[in-house]
Amino acid sequence: MEKTNVFGVVLAGGIGSRMGNVEKPKQFMEVGKKPIIIHTIEKFVVQPQFERIIVLSPKAWLNYTKDVIRKYIREKDKIDVIEGGATRNDTIMNAISHIEKQYGLDEETVIVTHDSVRPFVTHRILEENIHYAREMGACDTVIPATDTIVASADHEIISDIPDRSQMYQGQTPQSFKAWKLRQVFEALTEEEKKILTDACKILVLKGEKVHLVQGEVSNIKITYPHDLRVAEAILGGEKTC
């Protein structure tokens, strides 16, 4: 069987406003004496199934991103740094367009999209994302919800308490056959695009199946100052997975 092209897509387009008044986006803040984004990219470059790693950065930080990668990553020739979009999904579409122009795109091309500020993704999670994206067309990394989920339509009064056994917390990677993802995204109305919260919802809105991949509690997203301390603690006891 012909080899499927698989691309890692590291989403570093945000500026990290919830981290507080910091001088640079959170993906460039240091944990364990290296920028967070470097820990993340390191997990991708050692995955042999990735043909290329596409890193998407805010326009103002493109050169900085390239400089940081040159400084820390030995396999830098495997990495492309390009500009992100206005939204998360626009950023993913930029990655797909780049892959199409530079390397070619067909119905079997797989992208594994991941937050640059989730530096503790494991080899297993990446492997399973690649497998299920190939087999099912799309997958999402999740962990079971441990707390009761309370819904409130008006943000004041409880409107629903769904069955926790059916609830999951979304993580990343989210992985897809890129051709199909773009096809479905371009078919959405502007109203549908406005309610998108992540890439998987593109497919869910149109009734497409998205397989679940078991995540890890340690696969945290570094969003708030407290998360930096948690990340340092994880790094202190991290083992290769």
From TrEMBL:
Q: For the site Transition state stabilizer, which positions are given?
A: 18, 26
Listed binding positions for CTP are 11-14, 85-91, 116
EC assignment: the record states: 2.7.7.40
Q: Which CDD domains match?
A: CDP-ME_synthetase
**Family annotation (Pfam families):** IspD (PF01128)
Keywords of this protein's UniProt record, alphabetized?
A: Cell wall biogenesis/degradation, Nucleotidyltransferase, Teichoic acid biosynthesis, Transferase
Q: Which reaction does it catalyse?
A: D-ribitol 5-phosphate + CTP + H(+) = CDP-L-ribitol + diphosphate
**GO molecular function list:** nucleotidyltransferase activity
Q: Which SUPFAM superfamilies match?
A: Nucleotide-diphospho-sugar transferases
**What residues correspond to the site Positions ribitol 5-phosphate for the nucleophilic attack?**
164, 221
Regarding protein family, the annotation reads: Belongs to the IspD/TarI cytidylyltransferase family. TarI subfamily.
| Free-text function comment from the UniProt entry | Catalyzes the transfer of the cytidylyl group of CTP to D-ribitol 5-phosphate.
Which named protein is this?
Ribitol-5-phosphate cytidylyltransferase
The species is: Muricoprocola aceti
Q: What is the lineage of its organism?
A: Bacteria, Bacillati, Bacillota, Clostridia, Lachnospirales
